[in-house]
Each structure stands twice: as structure tokens, then as C-alpha cells.
Amino acid sequence: MTLPAIITTMAGGFIFPFLLRLIWGKMCEDWGSIGGYMAAGFIVGTTWTLNHGVGFMVQSGGAWIDMAFAAGAGLFVASALSGDNVPKGLTNLLFAIIGGTIGGFILSLL
């Protein structure tokens, strides 16, 4: 993997949890459950298109990489650095890894 591919992959992996932490909660607070659906469409859809659909950000090289890995790891690190409950976060991180693996496996079958 080349250095530009490494940098763009890391940037793509950073963008998704950053936007989740920054925007999702505010949309749910302001608009209720419909805000959660809108956040899912806008945040997940936009970052997926940027990272995978356009094809210039994330350079996985055929590995089983799903956006759940980036979301789980990024949100865990952000929560740990802000002083949240780390053991509870480890459980969520584990399930994000499992979900990412299942998602990557399903996508590899297509």
C-alpha cells in the first residue's frame, strides 16, 4: 500500500466516527426519532459514498473492512478520552468488531 493510500484510508476512517459524534446526537435531540433516521441517511450515506462509492478514499485492497470498524474504534477512543465508562465501551467495541466482520463477510459474497 502506498503512502497516499494509507493517508486517505486513515482520513476516511476518521471522518465517519467524527461526524457521528459531532452531528448524530444533536439531530436526535432537535428532531427526535426522525432526526436519527435523517442522521443515518445523511451521515452514513455520505461517508459511505465518499469512502467506498467514489473509490478514492479507502484503499482496503480486498480486506474485510466495514465502516463499523471505524465507527466502533473511533467512538471508543473519543469516549475514553472524554472520560466515559471504558469497560462499557469495550463491550460496544466488541460488538462493532463483530458487526463489521459480519458486514464485510456478507459484502464479500456479493
Automatic annotation (TrEMBL):
UniProt KW Transmembrane helix keyword: yes
Transmembrane segments: 6-24, 31-50, 62-81, 93-109
InterPro entries registered for this protein in UniProt: DUF6905 (IPR054200)
Keywords from the named record: Membrane, Transmembrane, Transmembrane helix
Keyword Transmembrane helix in annotation: yes
The protein's name in its UniProt record: Uncharacterized protein
Species this chain originates from: Alkaliphilus pronyensis
